[in-house]
Amino acid sequence: MRSDVETLNSSLEVMRGEVNQALHDLIQSEVELGAGEVALEAGRVLNAGGKRLRPILFLLAYQVAGGTKQDDVMPLALAFELIHTATLVHDDINDEAKQRRGIPTIHAQAGQAKAVIAGDWLFVQGFGLGGRYSEQIVSVIARCCANIAVSEFDQLDHVLNLATSPEDYLSIVKGKTAGPFASGCYAAGLVAGLEDEQAKALERFGMELGIAFQLVDDILDLRGDERMGKPRGADVYEGKMTLPLIHALTLSHGTHRQRLSDLIESFSDEDFDELMSLLERSSSMEYAEILVRTHLERAQAELNNFPDSQAKEMMQLITNIVKDRHA
Amino acid sequence: MRSDVETLNSSLEVMRGEVNQALHDLIQSEVELGAGEVALEAGRVLNAGGKRLRPILFLLAYQVAGGTKQDDVMPLALAFELIHTATLVHDDINDEAKQRRGIPTIHAQAGQAKAVIAGDWLFVQGFGLGGRYSEQIVSVIARCCANIAVSEFDQLDHVLNLATSPEDYLSIVKGKTAGPFASGCYAAGLVAGLEDEQAKALERFGMELGIAFQLVDDILDLRGDERMGKPRGADVYEGKMTLPLIHALTLSHGTHRQRLSDLIESFSDEDFDELMSLLERSSSMEYAEILVRTHLERAQAELNNFPDSQAKEMMQLITNIVKDRHA
To answer: Tag placement on chain A: N or C end, fewer CB within 10 Å?
Structure first.
């Protein structure tokens, strides 16, 4: 008795609406408590949309784990979304980004000082919600956030480092992008009352999905996708060593490698075609796509540890959505 | 049977040592867990000293409230110190400060991007420790931190605002400086098992002490004090409306007020004597000193709600230390 995709999609829409409503209410209540401008600035970015992939996944992971009271897991899901948004606000300062989710960044709108503080405020709100849970779950959240910071440091040290290895890359991605997916799914399983070993299957699901998600981001940065809300090639301009670049640098030799290095080190828009054709020579985009499929298959395999349910089908649908972002 | 000051001072030294050791161990254990550079950078500022006034006060408030197991309250005390240091790291970015606690700021040493992240990491560590407590205490910590952010926004909006009123000032100080003193004392009382009403007396103690603490800071900024670890007049240069300036602007008229406004709006070192003599005319330094005494007396009065103990005497000693900073 499998649900059709339309039913699943409309269930996803309902959940997104619930998450959006809860986030909206949270900002509203903080404004009423006197948080004023900082809540409004932070709320502007928080409520500007975003796919809500993380909180929806955590609500679903809770259901897949047998949880039935959404109110019990909603604060956890929101906590991760708030913390995620906090890191975006702080990233945007460091990247000097002008736009996020189609609107001006806090940095661009209200200046750096307020952007730092608004990010802190979002962190605080996230931890306030996360702190309602057991010591074990609080420690999962804290460990996850600490790893984000560690990986961001690591990533900064690898900017324009042409010797960045696939292992370096994976370690950064696991900490910064995939870690929060993994920790949120794991914690949601614990909230539902799973034994640690079962919850670990959800953690692995999140990790694999998160790695795939980052790889798709890397691909879209090069291919371009107006849905990203950031200009094509932003990663290359920032000197971020994405997987296609790392792969191409590893496989290329002689003049091709030299040219590739030169392009990466001083990139400009007119170099795009040449960059893409160098990536083509080493099949680096194709390689990244294969990795996306591999990680998504592993993610889906982890779901086999759980009984069939609509929530499980929706999690499968989300893995397909991640894949199809670059179709 | 009152202890002599020497005994109290050496007990304070012991507590400071315990706090320092615990902070050092925390960084060490994070480094061993793989936090590497971010823990080292954050730890460099965290372990560079500081009086540890906040954590020591919270340990003492716990004892005054009848608590006997220091291990139960130490994570709370450390949480507030970590969060305090996080706000300093982020403040230093926004103030472009070069030095903190006598060593280069993270901002100056490792750049802005890493300073933002290292501050986030300190927040996360603080919340990780604070999140071990009951939902009520977590919510006290989260509310306190949210208020810090709200007040920092407010303070930014009042930079060089010569119409800043004493009420505006007090509201900012209560959120940013005194609030954490109050929340830490209050939460420590709750950890010790106090009824809410009794714990509120500790909260009021912390609030009064914290206001006095900020007023002394304001005075020292103008008088100069090498123990501050920041140059004399830093607040004036940053356009921060400290109480002596607000008081003088309120009381001055005509050409004196005009000159005072001009000095504040474009301050330089050679203006110091003239600024001080204008503050003298309105007795603004004296006024701030009287307020310090008033708030410290109120703080001490709150301690009368608790039975005599060495911990209570040490809290009284700390109120004297705050007073004598500007002696």
So the answer is: N
Provide the sign of the torsion angle of the four alpha carbons A170, A107, B150, B60, taken in this order.
Answer: positive
Pairing type for strands B103-104 and B99-100 reads: antiparallel
Residues of A with Cβ-Cβ distance to B123 under 8 angstroms: 120, 123-124, 127
In Å, how far is B176's CA from the nearest CA of chain A? 12
Q: What are the structure tokens assigned to B309, written together?
A: 């103990």
ipTM of the complex: 0.91
Contact check, Cβ <8 Å, B127/A132 = no
CB-based contact B90:A120 (threshold 8 Å): yes
Query: Which of A109, A124, A157 best tests the B interface by mutation, with the highest count of B CBs <10 A?
Result: A124
DSSP character at residue A283: T
The pLDDT assigned to B228 comes to 59
Dist. CA B262–CA A91, nearest whole Å:
38
Token pair listed for A107: 């940095």
Quick check: B123 and A123 CB within 8 A? Answer: yes
Phi, psi of B230 (to 5 degrees): -140, 155
Give the per-residue pLDDT at A96: 87
B146: distance to nearest CA of chain A, Å?
Answer: 6
Number of Cβ atoms within 10 Å of the Cβ of A28: 13
d(CA A114, CA B61): 34
- The CATH H-level superfamily of B5-324 is Farnesyl Diphosphate Synthase (1.10.600.10)
What are the counts of helices (DSSP H) followed by strands (DSSP E) for chain A?
A: 16, 2
Give A13's contacts (C-beta < 8 A, 6+ positions apart).
Answer: none
The answer to whether the CB atoms of B146 and A35 lie below 8 A apart is yes
Alpha helices in A65-165 (DSSP H): 70-94, 106-110, 112-130, 135-157
Quick count: other Cβ atoms within 10 Å of Cβ B321?
13
Nearest to A146 among B35, B41, B94 (CB): B35
Answer whether A128 sits within 8 Å of B116, measured CB to CB. no
Look over chain B and give the mean of its residue pLDDT values, rounded to a whole number: 94
Q: Where are the domains of chain B?
A: 5-324
Q: Which residues contact B237 (CB under 8 A, 6 or more apart)?
A: B267
- What percent helix, strand, coil does chain B show, rounded to 5? 80, 0, 20
pLDDT, tens digit, for every residue of B225-284? 765 566 789 899 999 999 999 999 999 999 999 999 999 999 999 999 999 999 999 999
| Bridge pairing between strands A99-100 and A103-104 | antiparallel
pTM above 0.80? yes
Judged by CB atoms closer than 8 Å, whether chains meet at B112 and A93 is answered as yes
Q: What is the DSSP letter of A4?
A: P
